[in-house]
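INPUT
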Amino acid sequence: MKIVLLGSGNVATHLGRAFKMAGQSIVQVWSRQPQNAQELADSVGAAVALSLEEVVTDADLYILAVKDDAIRTVAEGLELDEQLIVHTSGSAGMDVLENISKKIGVFYPLQTFSKSKAVDFRQVPIAVEGNTPEVTQTIRAIADRLSEKVILLDSLQRRTLHAGAVFACNFTNHMYTLARHLLDGCDLPFDLLRPLIAETAAKIQHNDPATVQTGPAIRHDQQTMDAHLDLLQRDPALKELYRMLSQSIINYHSQA
Amino acid sequence: MKIVLLGSGNVATHLGRAFKMAGQSIVQVWSRQPQNAQELADSVGAAVALSLEEVVTDADLYILAVKDDAIRTVAEGLELDEQLIVHTSGSAGMDVLENISKKIGVFYPLQTFSKSKAVDFRQVPIAVEGNTPEVTQTIRAIADRLSEKVILLDSLQRRTLHAGAVFACNFTNHMYTLARHLLDGCDLPFDLLRPLIAETAAKIQHNDPATVQTGPAIRHDQQTMDAHLDLLQRDPALKELYRMLSQSIINYHSQA
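OUTPUT
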């Protein structure tokens, strides 16, 4: 299978590596940043397309791993007829690729990628969707070569999954950031929190998170929450977040 | 060393086990819930005190692992003179034990404990404080037997650390809960998010969380955020949280 990779960010990089490791050949890499394209191309043994016009037209699969608002523009720069093209976005619908080719779809790997950290792609869930049952099956078969966890989702389900991932990953990482910010203000090393963070994530690998919630909010420990709010006095935005998140915990668990 | 454990919750349970494993003897366990006290006493080979009056007066260390608002009341039920007594709270000041004994202090293990899940106590940071340098040293020496990560903190630093832990652990777990809630509404299995959660926590073990922030907010990807907000339409509280947390990410990283 001949694959063209469009994009050179974290998703493109990890997908490129994963395809290579699975024995697939990336024939070309294109990116708005030619230098990044070159780097990625080198690392997966592909050629570089310096412009969209240079992109070969006879590949079996075109993977668009670019920002959501660039998907349509980049796709329109390609000349396709019935070659398979997929985007890798969690929130963009499949319809953003409408009329780009007869075979369109989505190939969304659900993981947080950093270029510097390797990821075991076999364990990365991949949500796939195609515009016909045949296309869906083709995309599924491709995903199966990379991961043990392929799932068929329509665009609404995928968007819900993506929103869930924002809470579970992006907002969570921001909680780490705010915690570090608090500790920095008191010259406390962030290392003190790292075991706690690891344990918090480990706990829910085999539990429903709602059942292992701890802390002052779920205990209705107003005294402790007031002490913390008092401490956050100097940072009104952080104080308001503390208040809202505590209230959200209280509300969630009083309904349940 | 003879230790009396007051309380039978998660902290008391894990501390009791850790002391036992370190070869220390828990002589007595008291709890407001006699049945829980019995269970914990059995598991650490201690006797049960059915009332505070029954608590022995000749122990070397009294550990108060009870809710913050119960610390003072329980402590006042004991008859101490110069026996060492510590509480295990992150946010209560040492002064809550004032005049309970000549030797008072704090022994705060920073970890999220569930009774059902074992914890490697050697890696659990313990913040200690005493009312005199000698008392501080005594408490430190005791903590050193359980953990490699003992740190001296005053009450304000400890409270800051505790507030940081609320963000890094309690609020984080609530993010997992909200993510699951979202997925449940669409019949998507939470298992899809577990690898992502593990990777998000693993990433910051060797990175500053601010440098590995991902997601639509830090990319200023308004299109995706709008798509998510639209999806959260039916749940105004969740929608507002999404909006506030995204804004917090944007603000934090535009200042930095």
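end of record. Residues 158 and 255 of chain B are 27 Å apart (CA to CA).
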